[in-house]
Write a structure and sequence with these properties.
five-stranded parallel beta sheet, 20% strand, 2 domains, Rossmann fold, four-stranded antiparallel beta sheet, globular, 11 strands, alpha/beta
C-alpha cells in the first residue's frame, strides 16, 4: 500500500481528500500545519507528498525547498492561485506537478497514479550509462558527473537530462517532453518544460543567455549537444 502525506490546513478538505484516497487503496497521513511536515517526512517512508502552498507556520514552498535534496519521490502542490508565478516557483523548487483548487478528486487520483507509475518505472530500469566527453550519466545510480565534478540533480531534472541524452543531437519537441515528463498532453500554455530546462541548464553550468549544452532549436524544441562536453 502506497503511503501518501497530505499537508493541508483546510480541515474539511483534508478529510475529504484523505477519505477518497483511502477508498482508492492508499495509506494517507494528514498534517494541518506546515512546521510539522519536515520532521514527519524525515522520520517516515513516503511514496508521495501533497503540499498546500499556503500553510500556517511554514508554507509549502519552504517545505519543498528543505526536503527536496533528500526526498526523491513525487511532490504535488495544491494552490488556490491560478497564476504563472505560483506554478513556475513550485516547479523551480522541485515540484512534480500542481493542482489548482477546488480539487477534483478524480483528477488528483489520476495525477497521483501517473506519478507513482513513472517513479516505479524509474526504479526498476536497467543499468545504463551515457557518456559525451566529460559528461557521464549513470541511469542505475542516477549519478551525473562533468569531469570529476558530481552534479546534484533532483529526480525530475535527472529524468529530463536522461530523456534528452537518449536523443542527443536531435531536437525534442516541447509537446513530446511535456508528455513524457508530466504525463499529459501539452495545452500550449503550460510553462513546466521551459522551467525545467532552465533549471537543468543552471545545474549543468550552461550559459542561460547563450546556452551551448542544452540548446533551443527554434521551431523544433530542445536538444542536448553531443560536442559541448569536450
Amino acid at each position: 500500500m502506497k503511503h501518501i502525506l497530505l499537508v493541508e490546513d483546510d480541515i474539511r478538505l483534508s478529510q475529504l481528500v484523505s477519505k477518497f484516497l483511502e477508498q482508492n487503496g492508499f495509506q494517507v497521513s494528514v498534517l494541518n500545519q506546515g512546521d510539522q511536515a519536515i520532521s514527519y517526512i524525515q522520520k517516515n517512508t513516503l511514496d508521495l507528498i501533497i503540499l498546500d502552498v499556503m500553510l500556517p507556520k511554514l508554507d509549502g514552498f519552504s517545505i519543498c525547498r528543505k526536503i527536496r535534496d533528500s526526498f526523491d519521490n513525487p511532490v504535488i502542490f495544491l494552490t488556490a492561485k491560478d497564476s504563472d508565478f505560483d506554478h513556475v516557483l513550485g516547479l523551480e523548487i522541485g515540484a512534480d506537478d500542481y493542482i489548482i483548487k477546488p480539487v477534483e478528486p478524480h483528477v488528483l487520483l489520476a495525477r497521483i497514479n501517473m506519478l507513482l507509475r513513472r517513479q516505479s518505472t524509474l526504479k526498476v530500469s536497467n543499468i545504463d550509462l551515457i557518456n559525451f566527453g566529460s559528461l557521464s550519466i549513470n541511469k542505475s545510480s542516477r549519478q551525473v558527473t562533468i569531469g570529476e565534478q558530481a552534479i546534484e540533480l533532483t529526480s525530475h531534472e535527472f529524468e529530463l537530462l536522461w530523456l534528452l541524452a537518449q536523443h542527443a543531437g536531435e531536437p525534442q519537441s516541447r509537446e513530446y517532453i511535456h508528455k513524457k515528463m508530466i504525463g499529459r498532453e501539452y495545452d500550449g500554455l503550460d510553462r513546466s518544460v521551459d522551467v525545467r530546462i532552465s533549471r537543468l541548464r543552471k545545474k549543468l553550468g550552461d550559459n542561460p543567455d547563450n546556452p551551448t549544452k542544452v540548446l533551443t532549436v527554434w521551431g523544433k524544441g530542445y536538444m542536448l549537444s553531443k560536442t559541448a562536453w569536450e
